[in-house]
Amino acid sequence: MTVPEAEIVIAVHTADRPVRRAVESVLAAAPGRVGAVVVCHNMDPGPVREKLAGLPETVRLLELADAIPSPAGPFNYGLDQARAGFVGIMGSDDTLEPGAVSAWLDTAQATGSTAVIAPVRYRGGQRILTPRARVFRGPLVDPLRDRLAYRTAPLGLIRRDALSRLGLRLSRGLRTGEDLEFGLRLWFSGEKIAYPAHAPAYLVGQDADERVTSAVLPLGSQFQDVTSLVSGAWFPALPAAQREAIAVKLLRGHVISAAIRRGAQFGWGAEDRQAISAVVRSLTAAAPGAPRLLSAPDERLLLVLRDAVSGEEISAELRRRADAGALQRTFTRRWLTNLRREAPLRTNLNSLVFTAASRLHRSRPAAVPAAVPAAVPAAVPAAVPAAGSAAAAGSPAAPASDRTDGRQPR
User: 57 CB contacts (<8 Å, ≥6 apart)?
Assistant: First the structure.
């Protein structure tokens, strides 16, 4: 079998997932250049094999039974089994826009980059503004100047040989956040990273009945990814500026968003208060200046979460934060810090400029693509037993969220 230029790994956990739709979108994203590696995780692969019947031989079906309810296992296994020069990961509810992988491959080859960050949209059309990259730049991005910490999910393409060279593995055993350290280690590795912001996009599906990453977990479980990152060897060894940029993102996008999502009516029992206090203290110890770069209401909420004296105090501060106006949520408590790259004023202005630039880009005439011959169907190969298995743009931009991992944007 001819090895394609790129392979996208798709993890499937239940038989009702629209996996054929996902695979067909991958094939249409670079006809003749891309394949799909579908990993059935802790499930009977038979129904998935039936769904994929008749697709080309570049679609491979694997199975992994490790009894661990984490997406890290099937993604790592699929990446290990990939043969193409470039690899990527994708949720089974998600799709790619036509021509996406071709555009990403062409970007990687033109720039010599190790990774290409995919633009991400919801399937309804809304753009997800992560990373919050500079608008007026070339295709290559800088981890600090382009705020790559705001896109921890490694959606797009990665040179396969970089996985071992950089020691990139999704964190096993985590129900959520398994890609946090993977993405950050890649962006801050010093390798060339490209971001073709106006290329065809990765489309996040919103039709799953149950998404692990959108479930309200106990905060001790939800923050395992952050706790593991901060207590490990890699993050503390980073230069101070990089630690601060990452800490600001985690405080804003993980900690504060987790509190806001639960809201003032949440029980805020002792275990949850202890968990959120511990993660705030660990992040601010690693980057003491990070809280100053939050908006005034967010910084005040963070201080209450850090002390976590009582659930009533947290609830009261959440209500005050909800009542804050847009201007209050745009400015920090200290005027000079508003000029800093990570401050909300600059990130919000960046979003406005990007939205205007996107509209200008869409108004330009599009090149007419050459006709592409249809792929010749072929049978999907039988499942390959795994080690450890039983057998061996037209819409307004969406606000930047804290999750973009293909299940719930981060």
Answer: 1, 378, 379, 380, 381
